[in-house]
């Protein structure tokens, strides 16, 4: 377990936003690579909660992404979205749709939007994710889902991946 100074900080800047900030002791090129390379995403995205079974990344504006994991409890979770903006090693904007089997999914154009930025200072990178949900109910539902605990695990796995120099795929 990392010490508290290495944990992501989660704040709620408005009724429809979630802001996540996490610092890594690594250049932004490595953090960005971990964030965007399918074989690396497979190593961190599930955190401690399961195993990735599919990671598809079409890293271009208009390109789609999809992540599927088998949870430790034996059920499948899937998310997908589309890249809206990409500035290599600086910024990625994408929507994020939780695929809910047996339930009416939120239309892609109403899904939360993640604005992810990578800012490096003196070899350290601050990863910032601003999630715009469109409503307080959606924001609160995301928070209540256990998102923060899972995200903390993900960030720790990225940290460990970078520290282990296991970035070679």
Describe this protein's structure:
With 169 residues, this protein is of the alpha+beta class. It has a single domain (4-163), classed as START domain (Alpha-D-Glucose-1,6-Bisphosphate, Chain A, domain 4). Helices cover 25% and strands 40% of the residues. The chain has helices at 28-36, 38-44, 136-144, 147-163, and strands spanning 9-14, 17-24, 50-57, 64-71, 76-87, 91-95, 97-99, 113-121, 124-132. Strands 1, 2, 3, 4, 5, 6, 7, 8 and 9 form a 9-stranded antiparallel beta sheet that branches. Helix 1 (28-36) crosses helix 2. The protein is globular and about 45 Å long. The mean pLDDT is 91.
Report the uncertain regions.
none
Number of domains: 1
N-to-C SSE string, H for helix and E for strand? EEHHEEEEEEEHH
Specify the overall morphology.
globular
Give the topology, please:
Layout: E1 9-14, E2 17-24, H1 28-36, H2 38-44, E3 50-57, E4 64-71, E5 76-87, E6 91-95, E7 97-99, E8 113-121, E9 124-132, H3 136-144, H4 147-163
Antiparallel strand pairs: 1-2, 2-9, 3-4, 4-5, 5-6, 5-7, 6-8, 8-9
Helix pairs in contact: 1-2
């Amino acid at each position: 377990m990392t010490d508290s100074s290495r944990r992501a900080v989660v704040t709620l800047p408005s009724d429809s936003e979630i802001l996540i900030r996490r610092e890594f002791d690594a250049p932004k090129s490595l953090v960005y690579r971990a964030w965007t390379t399918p074989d690396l995403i497979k190593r961190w995205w599930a955190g401690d909660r399961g195993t990735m079974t599919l990671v598809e990344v079409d890293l271009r504006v208009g390109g789609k992404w999809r992540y599927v994991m088998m949870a430790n409890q034996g059920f499948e979770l899937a998310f997908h979205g589309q890249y809206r903006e990409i500035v290599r090693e600086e910024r990625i904007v994408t929507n994020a749709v939780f695929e809910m089997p047996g339930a009416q999914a939120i239309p892609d154009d109403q899904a939360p939007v993640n604005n992810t930025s990578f800012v490096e200072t003196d070899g350290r990178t601050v990863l910032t994710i601003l999630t715009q949900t469109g409503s307080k109910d959606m924001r609160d539902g995301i928070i209540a889902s256990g998102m923060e605990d899972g995200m903390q695990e993900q960030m720790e796995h990225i940290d460990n991946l970078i520290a282990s120099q296991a970035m070679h795929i």
